Fold each of these.
Amino acid sequence: MPENMLLELRHISKQYPGVLALDDVSVTFKTNEIHALVGENGAGKSTLIKVLSGAISPDKGEIVFDGITHTAMTPKLSRDLGVAVIYQEFNLAPALTVAENVFVGSMPGNKVFIDRKSCEKKTAEIFQRMKINIDLKALVRDLTVAYKQMVEIAKALSRDVRLLVMDEPTAPLTSKETDILLEIVENLKKQGVTIIFITHRLDEVFRIADRITIMRDGCFVGEMDPKNTTRDDLIRSMVGRQITDTYPIRDSSIGEPILEVTGLKGAGVEDINFVAREGEILGFAGLVGAGRTETMRFLFGADKKKNGKIVFKGKDIEIKNPRESVRKGIGLIPEDRKQQGVILGFPIRWNISLTILEKLSKYLFFNHADEKKIAEKLQISLDIKTPDSMQITRNLSGGNQQKVALAKWLAVECDVLIFDEPTRGIDVRARYEIYKLMNELCAYGKAIIMVSSDMEELLGMSDRIVVLYEGRKTGELKREQFSQEAVLRLASGVV
Ligand SMILES: Nc1ncnc2c1ncn2[C@@H]1O[C@H](COP(=O)(O)OP(=O)(O)OP(=O)(O)O)[C@@H](O)[C@H]1O
Ligand SMILES: [Mg+2]
């Protein structure tokens, strides 16, 4: 093995019922490099990482770490070798504090008694190194997704790592937080850590990666040097064909106001006003903590607002809970889809039909044939990769689980659909499909509210953008006023 080689995966295969998740994959990782691992949803990226962390054993192949050959890893062996993995799904204990979470498993001092003081001091140091302001005593349960992600990273940094694997670490982060994270990653590289970085955001790949490995349908497709590769080349080898448009053209005309919100007030938001019109995509921009998700949850009746008037189709309405909201015609596809979006133990089909049970039931009869038809149609249009719509949702890849959560809401016929981070963790091809679906919904005269931290997506898809900062609306931009600077200025409170 060449000297600067840290890890070599040789001929790794892993079969799941009906899916060959890894098909004879061989990859090498050098010491001290940032190695991007890319590929569409279901390509096998997370599975490969699980082989490396010892979470699963491969059916075939071997793992050479530091010149020593292993046929499989165990979680302990992997940890002892200095491998730390930040999974796509969070592994935090919601009822513990930030500091406790960081040190679970590698508690300093006596194992029986948690040395709270030194635990907090060390955690504070790690967050300082990350330049993140966080309340160490806060319960993880109460944190937003972005902060949960930061806790995951801190947890990995609390041990001596030689190989840090990050499975879509930036997916829940805004552009500013992403910058911080990428800086942390580059610093870690300088400190001698090797990083495997999985992401669907290709601009990040070009910003930090030294090498890129591409996977498709469980196979290793190739390796690329970002310096001699264009974005189009990379997409082509990921998808296996050319994709030209990032944002499909929408030809719907904007109609009457369908939803008018005035003086919305509640925990974390103050005096929010906006109007959403038929056939329009209204973007919501802001940093994490700006109150975007909160605003939407009040609107949807998921949390109780203090004040505010909601006029829907010309009538004053009062929404007490999400059920009522959906019945009236306002749907919300939540940001934290893992927690609120889907029931992981349910088959895909059941998840999709959850929101339309009433429509599918007549007296005592349940229309299974329609349920199957609707689910399969959405499965095809969103390209949810699995042999069968009765597959348990937990067994899907991360991105495909996201798609199930979307499908569930697309099955309901709502006049206003709120998408909170619609394409997070979703690959280029499916992203395009989701945008096309949004456009179709607009063409039917529905209004879409899109909360997004993806600047390109906001500018590319919205007709207007409302910007929030610290719970208040700082501005609203029309298409002709759109620019990254204009959004960022309002999002950082400069009015
Ligand atoms: N426990 C399981 N049972 C059955 N199939 C599984 C299981 N885990 C993964 N798979 C399948 O293996 C394939 C690869 O999944 P994997 O999670 O590695 O994809 P990925 O590249 O990480 O995708 P994403 O970008 O969506 O996270 C998928 O088709 C997935 O459905
Ligand atoms: Mg994955």
Amino acid sequence: MKNIKDILPHRVLTEPEDLFCYGFDASSKMGRPLAVVRPVSTDEVSRAAAFAFKHGIPLVPRGAGSGMTAGAVPLKDSVIVSLEAMNRVLEIDDKNLVAVVEPGVINARLQHMLESKGLFYPPDPSSMDFCTLGGNVAENAGGPRALKYGVTKDYVLGLEIVLPDGSVLTTGVKTYKGVVGYDLTRLVVGSEGTLAFITKIFLKVLPLPEETVTLLCAFTQMDKAATAVSRIISAKIIPGALEFMDRETVRAVEDYKPFGLPGDAEALLLIEVDGPGISVPEAAEEIASICGSLGAEVKVADDVFSKQRLWEARRAISPALYRVSPSKINEDVVVPRGKIPDMLRSLRDISDRYRVKIVNFGHAGDGNIHVNIMTDRNDKEEYQRAEKAVREVFEAALALGGTISGEHGIGLTKAGYLGMELSPENIMLMKGIKKVFDPKGIMNPGKIFSAGR
Ligand SMILES: Cc1cc2nc3c(=O)[nH]c(=O)nc-3n(C[C@H](O)[C@H](O)[C@H](O)COP(=O)(O)OP(=O)(O)OC[C@H]3O[C@@H](n4cnc5c(N)ncnc54)[C@H](O)[C@@H]3O)c2cc1C
């Protein structure tokens, strides 16, 4: 008879309070693991996996638990493998512009270390102050800078991974090029802990942009803000970030913590232009003129403190909305940039028909809209209406040529909707790939693919 503490002696937590704390993430789902394991090395991850493989114990990799789709939430009799203690920055190679990190490194910590060396790692999820790079790789996380710089997958050169049977292998390269065999790195990036444990990450980094200018543009009409986005891109300016917030979002943020955002605007665009010192002021002026011509009130953050404060306000959106509605349903659909006004119209219509408040913000530049259905789980009837609204939100995004998730992944909460976007052939092929990595189905079962489908 197996003793679960033998999975990795001295690294196992089984106290009820530990099981509670590792039972949830930033979604509203909750579970209770059988135990929590906290390895400190690849060898320990490998030994824990080999034990679980032998005894058929389901494993759930976990970073900081900030995921929005319950990817790190344990289902029945699972063991959480928390990678948070593997948190060393192993190397910053400024000659070759490569950083090597363990998975538990917090995103912002790497950002600060790189900045002090004049370097830059673009992926900047709004959770960067607390989410781990392992979680970012597993979710293929993006952030405001994705418009110009891409998402996590664009920076992962290679990985060290531990397969569910405990074997350790390295994928990809440590160079900027490499095409030997199938691209296993890309396969593992975004696999949401369903294929392997990520135990080491080889990242490409960039030189820090010479200059940044941050603008806040307040519009009286959402359509005008959307037009401004199209005109900025048509003017061949790709800002480092181009974020939008609707009126309700701004109000929730100001109630949470007064940042001085204009509460009477229908829509705000938070825009950052970055690049060589010579071209940035010119691009910022052009953006200000485009937004001004559409009736926006434009403010330029003229010192580091005001810039930081604006980005702090942006990062406060999620906590602010959770404060208003702790069980809100949060989706992150993407539509082609030019279709944002159509999507926002559909959302208004869905909100009216289902009598649920919908609050929107997101990455206007790449069409990624964070749709927040503000509902209270204790009100069963309202919650059911909200859940029905979700399906229509996805239908609307797909009808406009979009996708049901831009960065939060599928996890548990969206597994039931996978077939809305992917064909049965696609899903079958993906399941086949999973079987090769995970023949016993012990890696994060129930995530991405719903049980029995
Ligand atoms: C306030 C807030 C703002 C956010 N903003 C953004 C945003 O702008 N952009 C964005 O993309 N996301 C955002 N997110 C979602 C979330 O922070 C990211 O998805 C992040 O990448 C998750 O990292 P984590 O360390 O918390 O991972 P967890 O939540 O612990 O895990 C997420 C998934 O990754 C798997 N996993 C974790 N570590 C590993 C590993 N080492 N090996 C294998 N699998 C692993 C887990 O099994 C799970 O499926 C936000 C979340 C919050 C709460």
